[in-house]
Amino acid sequence: xxxxxxxxxxxxxxxxxxxxxxxxxxxxxxxxxxxxxxxxxxxxxxxxxxxxxxxxxxxxxxxxxxxxxxxxxxxxxxxxxxxxxxxxxxxxxxxxxxxxxxxxxxxxxxxxxxxxxxxxx
Length: 121
Ligand code: HEM
Fold this sequence. Notes:
Blueprint: H1 2-29, H2 32-58, H3 65-90, H4 97-115
């Protein structure tokens, strides 16, 4: 069960990021039906990431501070992805685009480096 969660988490994070990028491209290309379907699948991956992450945090990591912080930042990352997609779809992202993209890139890098323990404390 724990191994399955570890595999689910470790194998799903890049699928999540890839789905986000493809959904964004489809929105920009005006392929709204395709974007809608991929956005739904992306939201399913948010659930998989959060569920498997929380299980791993509670079991093998016993709420280690490193992964508590990583988990919180991962939620910020999901927020940034949702804001970018929803606001781009509505056409209301405007001047806030660089802020959300900046947040996305910086938090993504930190979350992955914390997850892989490249950054550790
Ligand atoms: C989109 C959101 C997320 C991304 C991109 C992400 C990314 C990653 C990455 C790259 C790893 C390293 C995996 C590996 O060793 O192969 C990892 C591990 C981990 N993440 Fe996440 N994560 C996300 C969400 C979360 C959430 C919401 C939590 C907890 C609340 C969490 C808790 C953990 C824990 C505890 C580990 C250690 C797993 C292990 O030892 O196998 N993650 N994450």
